[in-house]
Structure formats: structure tokens, C-alpha cells
Design a protein that fits this description.
Elements lengths: L1 H25 L17 E7 L11 H7 E7 L18 E2 L14 E2 L16 E6 L15 E8 L7 E14 L23 E6 L1 H13 L1 E6 L14 E2 H8 L5 E4 L12 E4 L5 E6 L2 E7 L22 H4 L17
Antiparallel strand pairs: 1-2, 3-4, 5-8, 6-7, 6-9, 7-8, 7-10, 11-12, 13-14
């Protein structure tokens, strides 16, 4: 029984093997193997790349370019538009913005040589730039900064009349402070912290008429700059000016009393007001052009405050003036009949 099973299994295996062999003989021959083709390398392009950070508005001299930039080959697909490929073409130009390490230089990161960020280009059309020497006192403690607007107030001391203080110029643009000028060029920059700087010069943008006035002020009188709120720009004011008399009168100082002069006009007209100083009883006695002495007469409104002093005898008196010498005592008036 076992023998028969073994024989049957062998015959079955042989039949299956022959069947498979015949099928393999009938199968089509395998095609040729495709050759392996290597991918072509991507095209690279030379571009200018920064080796370190470069500040905005830096002039690119040869030494700066050599120290801060280099040419690298990068994949063409990664090259941005307007990339700078010739490092020599950057000579003499300015960086428009801050350049970081590894940045690919493009044309919009540079300013042309004819776009020099100088002060002259910041002067508004029709105006002039003038520099004035200032101190912390005259420049609002040093807080005046580039771009601010200021008023100019001056004190005049005309001969024979009382000094007067007046605002003479308004809405004056500050172009620069000190000996430096920051070129904006429409590029936003970080707002600096508020701090008082050591200021020695202020450069202003003025019209030709304002230029003449401020030069006159600088040469002949004292003046100060008054810082304005930017929202008050173009809001000009008209003032009368101030004198010591007007200030004391306004605060009601007793040295100045308002006296209404007798009216010679009709009732409808406003009477004129004059200022009369208080009579303190002082009399100055003069001999020719020589001042002799000052005494205070009795009976004046302020006489109780003073003591009549005896005459002082000069060391030398010309003969022509000896007859005019007078002595005052008791109730006698200190003023001679001939005076």
C-alpha cells in the first residue's frame, strides 16, 4: 500500500514538472534591459553674496566690497530676479537697506551713485539750508531732532526803549542736528529712544526771507528754538510780544498802576490808558552836566521811607558853579528857584 502511494506521487511530480517545462519553452523571450541614464547636473549661476552684515546707506568702496562680499555659484533656479552677478558693478554705490550675512545681492538692495544720500537732496524746493550754533538751553535741552519743526523766539533791545520778546519765525523744519545727517530715502527705520543729545549745531530749512531774518538774529541778539507738536504744524499764531512792563502789568505788580487819562473824546470812544510810575519823592540836583546828588523831598507819597541827607561837598567846584551851591535843611525845598 505504501509502495503504491509512493509510485503515484513520483509519477504526479514528474507529470507536473514536464507540464511546467513545456510552458516555459512556449513563453516569449525576455526583452533587452534598458540602460541606466544619469540625471544631468543642474545649471549653476554666479551671484554676489554677502559675507557679513552691512549697514544701510553704506558707500561700497573697493575695500568694503572686498571685505564684505564674494561671488558664489548657486543653482540657477534659486537665483532671484535682478540678482547682481558682477561684483565690480557695485563699486561706488550705496546699500539701500541693511544687508545680512548670506544675502544674495539684488538691484533693489542698492542705490545708484547718482542717488547720493546727501543733505542737499533733503532741502525742500525753494528753500535753503542754514546751520546755527546752539546750546542745550537754546535747543530745548538737546531734544530737538532731525525732522522736527520749531519756532524761533528772540529778545530785542532797541536803543532808548524797553526790551521786547517776540516769536519771529514759525514752522521751521530741522534738517539735521549736529554734524550728521541720516538719509531716510523712504526706508523705514527703528524709532530711537528719546534722549537728550549734546547739540552744538542745528541745520534748518528756510525760505530766503527767513534766512535773512535768522542770520540777523544770530549776529545781533539772543534767541531760542521752541519745539512744536507735529500736529501743530502749519498752525501759526500772531502775538503782540512781551516786555517787562507788559508782564508786570498783567500780573498786577504794584510798580505799575493803570491811570486813565482825562477823556477828550466822545463817550462812545474808549479812553486811552497810560502807565504812571509811583512818585517816590526823589529829586536829582544837577549843576550843568555834572550830577551833584540825589535827595528826597518832604511831602511826597513815599517821603516817610526816606531820610533827607545833607549836601555832599565836592573835592573841587569850578568858580562859576560856586554861586549855585545851596544848602537844604528843615522844611526848605531841595530844588532852587532857578532850577
Amino acid at each position: 500500500m505504501n509502495r503504491r502511494a509512493i509510485v503515484v506521487a513520483l509519477l504526479a511530480s514528474l507529470a507536473i514538472s514536464m507540464l511546467l517545462w513545456s510552458k516555459l519553452q512556449k513563453a516569449p523571450p525576455a526583452g533587452p534591459v534598458a540602460p541606466v541614464v544619469e540625471r544631468p547636473a543642474e545649471v549653476k549661476k554666479p551671484v554676489v553674496v554677502s559675507k557679513k552684515a552691512v549697514a544701510a546707506r553704506t558707500r561700497l568702496e573697493e575695500a568694503v566690497i572686498k571685505d564684505s562680499f564674494e561671488v558664489k555659484e548657486i543653482i540657477a533656479s534659486a537665483v532671484p530676479d535682478l540678482a547682481v552677478t558682477n561684483i565690480a558693478s557695485m563699486t561706488g554705490r550705496y546699500t539701500a537697506i541693511t544687508i545680512l550675512k548670506g544675502d544674495i545681492m539684488t538691484e533693489n538692495r542698492l542705490m545708484d551713485a547718482n542717488q547720493i544720500p546727501n543733505l542737499a537732496r533733503a532741502v525742500p524746493p525753494g528753500k535753503r539750508a542754514v546751520s546755527i550754533a546752539v546750546s542745550k538751553v537754546t535747543s530745548v535741552g538737546g531734544f530737538v531732532q532731525q525732522g522736527d519743526y520749531v519756532d524761533v523766539i528772540a529778545t530785542f533791545k532797541p536803543r532808548g526803549s524797553e526790551p521786547v520778546t517776540k516769536i519771529v519765525l514759525q514752522d521751521i523744519q530741522v534738517l539735521a542736528v549736529g554734524g550728521s545727517y541720516q538719509f531716510a530715502g523712504g526706508i523705514p527705520t527703528m524709532t530711537p529712544a528719546i534722549s537728550a543729545a549734546k547739540v552744538d549745531l542745528i541745520t534748518l530749512a528756510v525760505t530766503p526771507e527767513e534766512l535773512e531774518k535768522i542770520i540777523q538774529l544770530d549776529d545781533s541778539t539772543t534767541f531760542k528754538f521752541v519745539l512744536k507738536n507735529p500736529n501743530d504744524k502749519d498752525k501759526r499764531v500772531i502775538t503782540k510780544g512781551a516786555t517787562q512792563r507788559s508782564v508786570l502789568e498783567e500780573i498786577g505788580h504794584p510798580d505799575y498802576v493803570r491811570v486813565t487819562a482825562p477823556s477828550t473824546t466822545s463817550d462812545t470812544e474808549t479812553p486811552k490808558v497810560v502807565i504812571a510810575p509811583i512818585d517816590d519823592g526823589k529829586v536829582e540836583i544837577m549843576y550843568g552836566a555834572i550830577k551833584k546828588r540825589e535827595v528826597y523831598k518832604y511831602g511826597g507819597p513815599a517821603a516817610a521811607k526816606y531820610q533827607q541827607l545833607p549836601d555832599s561837598i565836592p573835592a573841587y567846584m569850578p568858580p562859576a558853579m560856586e554861586s549855585a551851591e545851596q544848602t537844604y535843611s528843615g522844611e526848605q525845598s531841595p530844588v532852587g528857584s532857578g532850577e
